[in-house]
Amino acid sequence: MTALLLAVGAGVAFVTVAPAAADPVEDCTPTRGAVVAVDFAPFGGEVVRGCDLTPTTGYELLREGGFTTTGTQHDGPGFLCRIGHRSYAAGTEYPTPDREDCALTPQATAYWSYWIASPGQSRWRYSPLGAMSRTPKDGDVDAWVFGGTDVGGSTGRPSFTPDEVRAGGGVTPGPSVTPSATPSASPSPTGPSGSVDLDAAAAWVRGRLSDGDHIAVDGSGEPDHMLTTEAAFALAAADGSGTALDKVTAFLEGRTDAYAYPGGDGEAPDTNAAARLALLASATGGDPRDMGGRDLVGDLAKHVCDKGPDDGAGPECTAVGDFRSAGYADGQALAVLALLRAGLEPPAASVSRLAALQCEDGGVTSVLIRPGENCDGDPGTTGLVALVLDRAGGHTGTVDRAKRYLLGAQLASGAFPGYTGSTTGTAWTTGYAAQALRALGETGPADAAVGWLGTQQLPDGGFAFEEGGTDAAVYATSPAVLAGAGTSLLTLTREAPQPTGTPTGPSPTPPTSPPPSPTGPWSPTPTGPSPTPTGPSPTPPTSPPPSPTGPTTTPPPRPPGTTPDLRKGVAYLTGRANLVGGRYYESAGGGGRADFGLTIDGAYALAATGLDNDALRGVVDFLDTGEDVTGRAVHDWTGAGRGAVVGGALGKTALLAVAVGRDPRDFGGQDLVAALKDAVCKAPSTAPDRSCAAKGAYTYAQSVFSQSLGVIAQIRAGDEEAAREPLGYLRGLQRDSGAWPSLIPATGDADVDSTAMAAMAVDVADGGDTDRVVAKALAWIADQQLPDGGFPGAAGNSVNSAALAVQGLSLAPATYEAEITKALRFLASQQNRDGGFNVAKGGQPGSDLRASTQAVGGATGTSFGELTRDLTDTSPQPTRPGPGPTSSPGPDPSPSTPGIVTPGDPGGATGSGGANGSNGTGGSGGSGDAAGSTGATGSGSGSATGGGSGTDGGTGAHGAVGDGGALASTGAQAGLFALLATGLVLAGWRTVVVARRRTAADGGTR
Question: Is 326's pLDDT higher than 90?
Answer without folding.
Answer: no
